[in-house]
Write a structure and sequence with these properties.
Layout: H1 2-19, E1 24-40, E2 45-56, E3 60-73, E4 78-88, E5 103-116, E6 119-132, E7 135-138, E8 141-144, E9 149-163, E10 174-186, E11 197-207, E12 212-224, E13 230-243, E14 245-246
Length: 252
């Protein structure tokens, strides 16, 4: 646990230091929404389905994502998930891109959970292979050259949930929720190789029953663009609904 906290501290310092570099920085409001479902097929396999609806500047479309993956339980605490994401990326904000470049993404994810008293910890490591669409202006006409920009990315998230009115995260529990996640691109096509994105969330949630919960809270995203010369600070809120489905056979 101490090693994990030290890692978070080192990565936070690294990102903070990189943020002092001279670059064009803008501040924007953020309004992010998510719906997540894990469909349990048996005690080892679950299908994850997720929709992300991200906005800035009072509901200006920023990014929409459809994500799916097969969650494979190795133990009660450890799981592995291969998956796929498609991202729609509108032109948005105070630093608009030249073109709306969408993205295909493949990922591999390891998730580990553990508990210390009332504190529920979650650790998620994710490796991503990103295929980003490239556009060009040819004789005044915007032409797609296909998903030809390839990038690798690694992410790490630490999450903490603490029940407030009960001793455990059971139906009827209100809970405090926090997470911090770091991102770093790497590979031959990457210009800026330091940590280039950080997401922080602090809020509260309510567990309706075994399968349904929701949470809402403060959210901050710091995003350094691929060139390393521009940065967005998106600050606002994030809301998430979790609706799980159990299709596994129950014991008689």
């Amino acid at each position: 646990m101490i090693k994990t906290l030290l890692l978070v501290a080192v990565l936070t310092f690294s990102f903070t230091q990189s943020s002092f570099a001279q670059r064009e920085t803008v501040n924007q409001s953020a309004e992010w929404f998510a719906i997540t479902s894990n469909i349990k097929m048996n005690k080892r396999l679950s299908l994850m389905a997720e929709g992300q609806f991200r906005f800035v500047n009072n509901l200006e479309p920023m990014q929409f994502q459809a994500r799916t993956g097969l969650d494979i339980a190795i133990t009660k605490q450890l799981s592995f998930m291969p998956g796929y994401v498609y991202s729609w990326n509108p032109i948005y904000g105070k630093q608009p891109a030249a073109f709306a470049n969408n993205e295909h993404r493949i990922f591999q994810q390891v998730n580990f959970t553990h508990r210390i008293g009332r504190f529920y910890f979650g650790h998620r490591g994710r490796l991503e292979q990103r295929f980003i669409e490239v556009h060009a202006n040819v004789n005044g006409e915007v032409v797609s050259e296909g998903y030809t920009l390839y990038l690798n990315r690694i992410r790490y998230r630490i999450q903490l949930q603490v029940p407030l009115n009960k001793k455990e995260l059971v139906p009827g529990a209100f809970y405090a929720s926090f997470y911090n996640e770091f991102f770093m691109d790497f590979g031959s096509n990457v210009v800026y190789t330091d940590p280039d994105q950080n997401r922080f969330f602090a809020g509260a949630g309510y567990k309706v029953d075994k399968n349904v919960s929701f949470q809402l809270g403060f959210f901050e995203q710091r995003l350094i663009k691929l060139s390393g010369t521009k940065q967005e600070n998106n600050i606002g809120f994030q809301a998430q609904l979790i609706y799980n489905i159990d299709l596994s056979k129950k014991d008689n």
